[in-house]
């Protein structure tokens, strides 16, 4: 059917509906339905405009309406027209709110995406089609979002997002936000910022995480698909809960940190024997908060200026990890050989006369006392003169001006080897001991590996775990040996019995063997 005939027919149908509609409300419902059913997309916007003009004339509700037009780009010609951040944010926000069960018509595309564990998957993207609208209630005010096709504000070169209606030529898609005029302040002061914030949250949640490793003065970035989460982490449940609560509180406290004038950062010191899950915990923290990881290897930082560049080059919402700090900066190997004596505030000169580095412009202060850099193998040099204390002061100073959320994590196998300056209050906010595999940690592993909550071998394993020091890594390794829970658990039981035997003093061993012989 040719477009002009379609147009005439639909306008006739539209007139008929107007004449027969008993009330303005009935008219509005019918007009919307008819527009959706009958009109080609290009006429829908005009019909919507006519309908709203008529409903205003008919005095529907008697309220003055206000409409904000949100274009993809700033209106006005000229070079350098900026993208309109609200347009992108509104699309993201609406995509997260649109409910396919509640709408007659919706745009849908599937985009390729990675799932949280690195596997390939699909990401669903919902969007409003031109001519359609949806409502959103906020603080008791009803806001209506509508997508309309409009002449381009200038070139229409904005690229479409994957699968969404794009723009091109002289047509553009515009989002209209309408509400009762009396709520203009709510819309401008609270609803629009709320939409921006909610969109940022969604993007943060959906984006692919990165792990970044230092290379000279810059970071080398790769996708981060570590499967560890707080669900898979085997550790004391109470400690796990307190870490999650601490992270959540931190992430929600932007205003708090601003008010008290402190850098929005939090420091965690993870310590414990090798194989107890310190690296897994860091990965779980990153996955929980959806933060990127910056794995700083101080052995490859040879100049203080490089360190400065690296820290400046970190993105917001990230975790800076320095592993095995006892290896890269051994504070006890100072020239005078004494442990630092002073404790107290973190301002002013620190124990090593590093000076107050909280001025963000200050270069990393050289340590007066020489700290011998030491790698795990005692052979890799670290940045000259860096002390952990100086490093922390420097980071504090640098980060305090950015106002961005950052977490710093130090890991070590030997807490007792650390510079006491690092351990004093206010330096590392939370000290987390990752210990040997206890009963609760084992149960988490058994659940992860075999989906079992109980087994006939559990009582024996529980008793053995109370006597034997074994890391979660070693237990995981035993559980991996078979897909059959019974076989794997029996293997673990034998392994624990053997460890128990090995740990026993010889006299006790022969005593037990004699007892066993008598029996
Ligand atoms: N607490 C744990 N919960 C779940 N899995 C664990 C845990 N601890 C260790 N594992 C398993 O053992 C492997 C090694 O652990 P991980 O590297 O996290 O230990 P680590 O404490 O960081 O060791 P290191 O001190 O040597 O760096 C992990 O990939 C994981 O499979």
From TrEMBL:
Keyword Ligase: no
Reaction catalysed by this enzyme: ATP + H2O = ADP + phosphate + H(+)
AAA+ ATPase domain: residues covered: 264-438
Region feature Disordered, mapped onto this chain: 336-379, 500-519
Keyword NADP part of the UniProt annotation: no
Keywords annotated in UniProt: ATP-binding, Magnesium, Nucleotide-binding
Any Pfam family matching the protein: AAA_lid_At3g28540
Family: Belongs to the AAA ATPase family. BCS1 subfamily.
PANTHER family membership: BCS1 AAA-TYPE ATPASE
Protein name, as recorded: AAA+ ATPase domain-containing protein
Provenance organism: Panicum hallii var. hallii
């Amino acid at each position: 059917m040719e477009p002009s005939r379609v147009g005439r027919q639909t306008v006739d149908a539209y007139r008929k509906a107007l004449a027969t509609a008993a009330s303005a409300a009935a008219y509005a419902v019918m007009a919307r339905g008819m527009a959706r059913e009958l009109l080609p997309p290009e006429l829908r916007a005009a019909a919507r405009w006519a309908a709203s003009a008529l409903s205003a004339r008919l005095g529907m509700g008697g309220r003055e309406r206000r409409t904000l037009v949100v274009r993809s780009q700033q209106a006005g010609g000229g070079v350098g027209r900026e993208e309109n951040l609200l347009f992108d944010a509104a699309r993201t926000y609406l995509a997260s709110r649109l409910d396919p069960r509640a709408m007659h018509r919706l745009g849908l595309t599937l985009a390729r995406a990675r799932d949280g564990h690195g596997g390939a998957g699909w990401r669903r993207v919902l969007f409003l089609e031109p001519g359609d609208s949806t409502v959103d209630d906020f603080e008791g005010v009803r806001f209506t979002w509508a997508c309309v096709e409009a002449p381009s504000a200038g070139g229409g070169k904005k690229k479409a997002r994957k699968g969404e209606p794009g723009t091109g030529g002289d047509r553009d898609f515009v989002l209209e936000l309408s509400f009762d005029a009396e709520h203009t302040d709510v819309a401008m002061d609270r609803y629009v910022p709320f939409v921006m914030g909610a969109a940022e949250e969604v993007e943060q949640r959906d984006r692919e995480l990165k792990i970044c490793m230092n290379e000279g003065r810059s970071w080398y970035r790769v996708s981060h698909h570590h499967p560890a989460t707080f669900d898979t982490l085997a550790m004391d449940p109470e400690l796990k809960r307190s870490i999650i609560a601490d992270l959540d509180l931190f992430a929600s406290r932007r205003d708090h940190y601003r008010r008290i004038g402190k850098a929005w950062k939090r420091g965690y010191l993870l310590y414990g024997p090798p194989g107890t899950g310190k690296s897994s915990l860091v990965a779980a923290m990153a996955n929980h908060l959806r933060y990127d990881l910056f794995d700083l290897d101080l052995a490859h930082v040879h100049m203080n200026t490089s360190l400065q560049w690296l820290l400046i080059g970190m993105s917001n919402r990230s975790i800076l990890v320095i592993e095995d700090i006892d290896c890269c900066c051994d504070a006890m190997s100072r020239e005078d050989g004494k442990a630092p004596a002073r404790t107290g505030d973190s301002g002013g000169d620190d124990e090593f006369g590093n000076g107050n580095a909280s001025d963000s412009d200050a270069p990393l202060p050289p340590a007066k006392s020489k700290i011998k850099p030491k790698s795990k193998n005692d052979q890799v040099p670290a940045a000259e003169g860096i002390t952990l204390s100086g490093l922390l002061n420097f980071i504090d100073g640098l980060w305090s001006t950015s106002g961005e959320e950052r977490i710093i994590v130090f890991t070590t196998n030997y807490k007792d080897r650390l510079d006491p300056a690092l351990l004093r209050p206010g330096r590392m906010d939370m000290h987390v001991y990752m210990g040997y595999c206890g009963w609760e940690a084992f149960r988490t592993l058994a659940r992860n590996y075999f989906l079992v909550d109980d087994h006939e071998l559990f009582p024996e394993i529980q008793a053995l775990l109370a006597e034997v020091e074994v890391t979660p890594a070693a237990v995981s390794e035993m559980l991996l040996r078979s897909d059959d829970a019974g076989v794997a658990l029996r293997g673990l039981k034998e392994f624990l019995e053997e460890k128990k035997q090995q740990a026993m003093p010889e006299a006790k061993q022969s005593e037990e063997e004699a007892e066993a012989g008598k029996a």
